[in-house]
Design a protein that fits this description.
22% of the residues lie in helices and 26% in strands. The protein contains four helices and seven strands. By secondary structure, the chain is of the alpha/beta class. The longest helix is centred in the first third of the chain and has 11 residues, at 8-18. It is globular and about 45 Å long. The chain has one domain (8-144): Dihydrofolate Reductase, subunit A, CATH 3.40.430. It has helices at residues 8-18, 27-32, 62-71, 83-89, and strands at 22-26, 41-45, 57-59, 77-79, 95-101, 119-127, 137-144.
Length: 152
């Protein structure tokens, strides 16, 4: 199904934010985005133990992805979709980089609820529709009010 809009500003924001990063991505989203991985390190979250991605590697859990990325020296793991990885990683996240689009499109699964008692807006850039972007949008960074420690 994919992202139900074509917004060059959103695509450029995504590419800039994820350049060179370790990514956690669900299998369907990975397959939809296969041509996007130029300088990324994708970790594909799937229950299919036989799945072997042509770029990146398969993982069975968020914790496994964090371990692999951390062992490679990554300072963060960016979760880029779909709904399963978002929901599984949300309890461990301390920052959210989101594009909020002014219209509800498609029938996809919504992003997990952002509880205001847990999250605060750290920055927001709003953009009206223009010649290249048919929909208005906001690039929003949320930070967890109480940062979580991953040290066990």
């Amino acid at each position: 199904m994919g992202v139900p809009w074509q917004l060059p500003r959103d695509k450029e924001h995504f590419r800039r934010a994820t350049r060179g990063q370790w990514l956690l991505i669900g299998r369907r989203t990975y397959e939809e985005m296969l041509g996007w991985f130029r300088d990324h390190h994708p970790l594909v979250l799937t229950r299919d133990n036989g799945f072997r991605p042509p770029i990146g590697e398969r993982v069975g859990s968020v914790e496994e992805a964090l371990h692999i990325a951390g062992k490679a020296g990554a300072r963060e793991l960016m979760v880029v979709g779909g709904s399963g990885p978002f929901a599984a990683a949300m309890p461990l996240a301390d920052r959210l980089l989101l594009t909020e689009v002014e219209s509800i499109l498609g029938r996809g699964v919504p992003f997990p609820a952002i509880a205001p008692e847990q999250w605060q807006v750290a920055s927001r850039q709003t953009f009206p529709p223009d010649a290249e972007n048919a929909l208005g949008m906001a690039m929003v960074t949320y930070e967890r009010r109480q940062a979580r420690s991953l040290a066990a």
